[in-house]
Amino acid sequence: MAALADVGLADRAGEWPSRLSGGQRQRVALARALVHKPRLLLLDEPLGALDALTRIEMHALIERLWREQGFTALLVTHDVSEAIALADRVLLIEDGHAALDLRVPLERPRERTASGFTTLEDRVLRRVLQHPPVEEAPPARPTPFSRWRWAA
User: Fold this and answer.
1) Which CATH number does the domain 40-130 belong to among 3.10.580.10, 1.10.3430.10, 3.40.50.720, 3.40.50.300?
2) Helix (H), strand (E), coil (C) string for 86-119
3) What pLDDT score was predicted for residue 1?
4) Which InterPro entries match (predicted)?
5) Is the pLDDT assigned to residue 149 strictly greater than 60?
6) Nearest to 30 by CA among 75, 83, 92
7) Hey, where are the domains in the chain?
8) Which of 14, 44, 88, 125 has the fewest CB atoms within 10 Å around its CB?
9) What is the overall mean pLDDT for the chain?
10) CA-atom Rg of the chain in angstroms
């Protein structure tokens, strides 16, 4: 019950999972991960299916729990803003190598509209966009009718 209280769901302890919203389900998953007081918390795109406002609420919750419980977290995300908001260090992985290793020296809680936040976000985005995905070769053109040869 303490883990559910930590994520603000003690009053929903008796509910069936199908009765919970997506954000509440993510908080339950977080509570389950934290119930044994881990020293390392691995998060792989945990908020990808949530709407923008719920994601921001979850960012604040994860940060609060991190401060209170002192665990180390490894977050995998494709959301640059999320990475800057939550991380002390952002690693951009390309082809199995660290293409960017960026410290995030911003005060907590982080203000998304602060110039330092937007500067770091822009730096990561510029690096990501520096190498656009390789385009597939265009499909072969059909042979024009004038080049066809007919035999009888």
Assistant:
1) 3.40.50.300
2) HCCEEEEEECCEEEEEEECCCCCCCCCCCHHHHH
3) 79
4) ABC_transporter-like_ATP-bd, ABC_transporter_ATP-bind, P-loop_NTPase
5) no
6) 75
7) 40-130
8) 14
9) 87
10) 23
CA–CA separation, 89 and 111 (whole Å):
17
Pairs from 79-88 (Cβ < 8 Å, separation ≥ 24): 79/47, 79/48, 79/55, 80/121, 80/124, 80/125, 80/128, 81/112, 81/121, 82/47, 82/55, 83/124, 84/110, 84/117, 84/120, 84/121, 84/124, 85/59, 85/110, 85/112, 85/117, 86/59, 86/62
Residues 80, 125 contacting (CB under 8 angstroms): yes
* 83 neighbors 123 (Cβ within 8 angstroms): no
The CB density around residue 110, as the number of other CB atoms within 10 Å, is 19
